[in-house]
Write a structure and sequence with these properties.
The protein is mainly α. It contains seven helices and no strands. The longest helix has 16 residues.
Length: 136
């Protein structure tokens, strides 16, 4: 079974595999509540994002709240600063390209999100070029 779950911008799709029994139950629940499957699943998953499962060790801060931004570049920077061990390999590569440019950091060494956001396409292109060279 494939479900489409979208954010407010309705651009992200999530494919989900469930058993026939679960699909049947979801269909019944959808009919009873008058909500779409996407609405049901989104409403069910959102509280999970606020749960303790996303708390960082030794803190009450919620990782989702600390890192979420509507801008991809800000999300990557927020995650890199907050929980660098959770970066994917591709994100690590992008973060490395960012760290190599002094213009992306202020005098205290903090990331300048506005500067990074403004050069995001160029950062992604530079990362792709480095990746291509590595694969040669």
């Amino acid at each position: 079974m494939a479900l489409k779950i979208s954010r407010e911008a309705k651009k992200d799709v999530l494919t989900l595999r469930v058993s026939e029994k679960t699909r049947y139950g979801l269909d019944l629940l959808s009919r009873v509540t008058g909500k779409t499957l996407s609405q049901l699943l989104t409403e069910s998953l959102e509280p999970l994002l606020q749960s303790a499962q996303l708390h960082l060790p030794n803190t009450q801060s919620n990782l989702f709240n600390l890192t979420w931004s509507p801008f991809d570049s800000d999300r990557l920077v927020n995650l890199a600063v907050t929980a660098p061990d959770l970066l994917t390999l591709d994100e690590e590569r992008i973060w490395t390209v960012i760290r190599e440019q002094h213009e992306f950091f202020d005098a205290n060494g903090d990331p300048r999100r506005d500067a990074i956001r403004g050069k995001w396409p160029q950062i992604q292109q530079a990362t792709a070029k480095y990746q291509e060279k590595m694969e040669e």
